[in-house]
C-alpha cells in the first residue's frame, strides 16, 4: 500500500490478471442489462466525454436538471443490476469500512475521454470512503486538495489498481487528464473502465 497523502491509499495490482479478466467478463454481461449512457452536464446540457452505467441499489446520474443518485437506469427505466459479489469482496478487503456500498458507478473511457477535476459530494455521508478500481488502459490521474486551486499531483493508474479516498482526502479534487491508449490488452474494444464503490445514502 502507498499512502499518497492522509486518507488517500493506493494499492498497485490489487487485482491480478485472472481477477481482472473475470470481472471484465461479469461487466460485459452487466452492461448488456444496463447499457453505458452518455451523461450531460447540469444546466449547460453539454455531454460528458465519458460514458457511464451503474450497479447496486443506487446509481449516480447527471442530466440537465442536476446530479443525483437514483434506483433506475435513465434510458431503460429498469433497476440497476446487482453489484457483483467480486466487487463487494474488494470493498471488504480494502475499504476499511464496516458498512457496505450501495452504489457502484461504472465509467468508460475511449481514447479521447477525460474527466475534469471534481469533488464527489452527492453522497449523504462523507464518513464512508470511496473505492476506485481501474481496468484496461492506464490513465493519468490527478489529485489535489479540497479547494480547486490547491496544488495537484499526477499519478499513473494501471489495470488492477485500487485507490481508496477516505478521511481527510474524501473531498479532494481529482480527475483523469487522459488515458494511455494501447497500454493494456484487457478490454476489447480497448479503453479504460473505472469502478467507484460508494455509500450514497
Ligand atoms: C476515474 N475517478 O478514475 C475517475 N472519484 O475514472 C473518480 O472520479 C473517483 O477515482 C471518487 C473517488 C475515487 C475516484
Ligand atoms: Fe470522482
From TrEMBL:
Organism the protein comes from: Candidatus Rhodoblastus alkanivorans
Cofactor: Fe(2+)
Positions of the Fe2OG dioxygenase domain: 100-201
Keywords: Dioxygenase, Iron, Metal-binding, Oxidoreductase
InterPro entries named in the record: Alkb, AlkB-like, AlkB-like_sf, Oxoglu/Fe-dep_dioxygenase_dom
Protein name, per record: Alpha-ketoglutarate-dependent dioxygenase AlkB
Pfam families reported for this sequence: 2OG-FeII_Oxy_2
Top-rank taxon: Bacteria
Keyword Oxidoreductase recorded: yes
Keyword Iron: yes
Gene3D superfamilies assigned: Alpha-ketoglutarate-dependent dioxygenase AlkB-like
GO molecular function annotation: dioxygenase activity
